[in-house]
Specification:
187 residues
């Protein structure tokens, strides 16, 4: 991947940037955390290399110079349907500070500025924390995608189809408020 192909996006706390070879090990460590691996199943170093490092649609969610997680920004190529699908995960140590919301907000603003009119998400129907976070950002529940995700053991689970349109927030969703105490990882 050519790291210059992705322009970094910077918010008050989060930077979204291209994935590099140096991100491989930190990403795998995050993907193997039990709370992350529950939703992002079966990752190995080879799979991380293939799906993230070699993928220009992948982004690192960086906080204070550290890899906090990653996201996919999957822009459709049909001009009749200007839609982007996003998926993301965060390390458990970075949860609870609206870092995922800030990362999504930055990416959505960039997509709207590029002419995209709709962003969709499809979290597992049982991932209540993610769904609450997406709703705080302005995403709406559209419907249930039945038998959507193959889970460990082979059973299927539903996903919640959610969207946010440029009509909802013409300039993009507001970023989470930050005060001086939220800019540091130390407690």
């Amino acid at each position: 991947m050519n790291p210059t192909a992705v322009v970094p996006l910077r918010g008050p706390l989060v930077t979204l940037r291209a994935v590099s070879d140096e991100d491989r090990d930190p990403l795998l460590a995050i993907l193997l955390e039990p709370e992350v691996a529950l939703w992002w199943v079966g990752y190995t170093l080879d799979r991380v290399s293939e799906e993230f490092v070699a993928n220009p649609q992948a982004r690192i969610i960086e906080v204070e110079g550290r890899c906090a997680g990653a996201m996919f920004v999957l822009r459709g190529d049909d001009p009749e349907y200007p839609t982007t699908v996003m998926h993301l995960f965060l390390a458990t140590e970075f949860r609870g500070r609206r870092i995922g919301e800030e990362a999504l907000g930055l990416a959505i603003r960039a997509e709207f500025a590029a002419g995209i009119t709709r962003v969709t998400l499809d979290p597992n129907i049982n991932n209540a924390g993610a769904i609450r976070s997406y709703e705080r950002l302005g995403f709406r529940r559209i419907g249930v995608l039945r038998d959507y995700q193959v889970r460990p053991g082979g059973h299927l689970e539903d996903a919640l189809f959610m969207d946010l349109t440029r009509g909802d927030f013409p300039e993009g969703p507001p970023l989470p408020p930050r005060d001086s105490s939220s800019s540091s990882l130390s407690n």
